[in-house]
Structure formats: C-alpha cells, structure tokens
Amino acid sequence: MRVALNRADLRRPFPADLVQVMTGATVTGLSRRAKYGLMHLDRGATMIFHLGMSGRWRIDPETAEPHDHLLLETAQHRFALCDPRRFGSVDLVGTHALDTWPQFAALGPEPLGPGLSAAYLKAALKGKTQSIKLSLLDQRIVAGLGNIYVCEALWRARVRPTKQAGKVTGPQLARLVPAIVDVLEASIRDGGSTLRDYARPDGKLGYFASSFDVYGRTGESCRRGDGGMIARIAQGGRSTWYCPVCQK
DNA sequence: CGTGTGCCCTGACAGC
DNA sequence: TGCTGTCAGGGCACAC
After folding, report:
1. Which nucleotide is nearest to A200 (CA to C1')?
2. Is it the case that residue A196 has pLDDT exceeding 70?
3. Cα(A16)–Cα(A37) distance, rounded to whole angstroms?
4. Would you list the DSSP string of A205-247?
5. Dihedral angle computed from the Cα positions of residues A124, A126, A128 and A130, in that order, rounded to the nearest 10 degrees
6. N or C: at which end does chain A have fewer Cβ atoms within 10 angstroms?
7. Residue A192 — pLDDT band, cuts 50, 70, 90?
8. How many whole angstroms separate alpha carbon A156 and alpha carbon A145?
9. Strand B: which nucleotides have any atom within 7 A of a protein Cβ?
10. Which positions ≥6 away from A131 have C-beta within 8 Å?
11. pTM of the shown model
12. Higher model confidence: residue A229 or residue A209?
C-alpha cells in the first residue's frame, strides 16, 4: 500500500517509522482489542489505531477533509483516518509482541468474551471504594466499555452508578454481567450509537441512540414506569445518567 | 498503591 | 446574525 501523513501527530506523534514500515506492505488481517483496531501487515508488524471520540475511517473519499490525517491506498481502496479532535492514536507494534504491548497487557477481559463473569467482577472490584460507574469505565477492569454503555448497563442491572464498587452485591453483579452483554449486543445489532458526529464508514447512522434508556434523558421519566425522573450527575468529569428510584 | 482532578482538541448546539 | 458557554462515544499525566 501507499501511505501519506498530513501531520506529525494525533494525541501523540505518529510512529517515526510508520510510513517506511507500511509503504509497500500488504494487509493480512484486521482485528480488535478493547477500543483499539488492529491492522496486521505482512512484514511482522501491526498498526494499532484508536479513534478517540471523533475519529473515523473514510473509505474511498471523494473529497479531502481538513482532518484527514493519515492516508492509505491499496490496489482496491483508499482510506483516510479523519479525526477532528485528534484524541485518537496510531501505533506500530511487532505482531509477535502484541500481548506484551503495555496498553494491551493491562487490559481487563473483553465483555463479550468468556472472561467476564460475576465471579471475576467480585474479585476485581473487591475492596474498591471508587464508584461502580468509574470502575466499569476503567479498561483494566473490563476492556472496551465507554460512557454510554456503562450508564445503560447500570440502569438495566438496577445498580446506582455512585455505589462503591466493592459494595455492589452478589445479586447486582449477577445482573450486571448480562446487562453489559445485552446492551453491547443490542447496540452492535442496531449499528452503533449516533450522537452528534458519529457515522459508520459508509456514512450511515447507527440507530441504537434511539433505544437509550437513560443516556441523555435528563428529566424524562424512567422507562420502568416507577415514577422516577432520570437524573444527570458528574463523575470523574463525565456525565452519568440514572434513575434514582430503581437503581440502588 | 488507589483515587480524584484536569487537560489535550475541535465542533455542534443552546441561549442570549 | 454573531457571540458565548457548555458539552462531547477517551485516555493520560499528575497530585495527594
């Protein structure tokens, strides 16, 4: 493939050898770990990208955009990594060393994999005084959950986001695991969550946002019909939405 | 060590 | 119609 950079950095600098390593390489596969995308190359290297909050790959773009920072061109397609806020990142790691890459080595289990269970959560959260909301956002506890899905999962499991993680009860943990799985599977099925600027690579919108039970529903009534009014609070500098009636 | 805070950056939107 | 303030799907450095 052909490779071009339009600037030197996103969140951090692009790898110094990115263009040299990727130019002429062939993509042998794509995969994902937590919120990172992986592009495996035929020369023993893997490009790892994170889309941050505003990043997306534009496929066969007809026009250039100001925030197209990295351009790839294969025999079949052109790809532009567009990221207005530049909260994303691109790294280059030896394919044999992916598991020991520091950002991966510290990650918790995948929520849709076999590692997430009530027993695991009980052990991982034991003694933690931090809120369950912030603990679930911690990628070292569970890999890949973001603000929307943590809020939605806690509502489904009827757990109050401010509850200390170490004090979440056994029955609550038992509800939390399927709640996390269900909310992720539902969102994947609906094509993701379009808020302001997110779109799928083909430009289509994700419709899971229309299914939110709490996210962004400040002041609206709880869908459980318990008379609760969805509240918005701040935790760790991020917004949390929950129902004060059914989430305990 | 665990926990909490603030900041990186641009753009969209609400309210005046 | 401009202006201003606020907020955003995340992660990290840093202070205590």
Report:
1. C9
2. no
3. 20
4. PPBGGGG-SSTT-TTSBPTT-SS-B-EEEEETTEEEEE-TTT-
5. 60
6. C
7. confident
8. 15
9. 2-13
10. A161, A162, A163, A164, A165, A235
11. 0.95
12. A229
What was the pLDDT predicted at A206? 76
CB < 7 A contacts with chain C (nucleic strand): A 11, 34-35, 50, 52-53, 85, 87, 103, 137, 139, 146-148, 192-198, 206, 237-239
- Cβ A85 to strand B below 7 Å: yes
CB A90 within 8 Å of CB A47: yes
Label residue A210 by pLDDT band (50, 70, 90). confident
Q: Which residue's CA is nearest to the C1' of nucleotide B2?
A: A128
Short-list A97, A70, A61, A51, CA closest to A8? A70
Which own/partner contact pairs does A92-95 have at CB distance under 8 Å and 24+ positions apart?
Answer: A92/A15, A92/A17, A92/A18, A92/A21, A92/A22, A92/A45, A92/A46, A92/A47, A92/A48, A93/A45, A93/A46, A93/A48, A94/A44, A94/A45, A94/A46, A95/A40, A95/A41, A95/A44, A95/A45, A95/A46
**CA–CA distance, A213 with A151 (Å, rounded to integer):** 9
Distance CA A81, CA A71 (A): 6
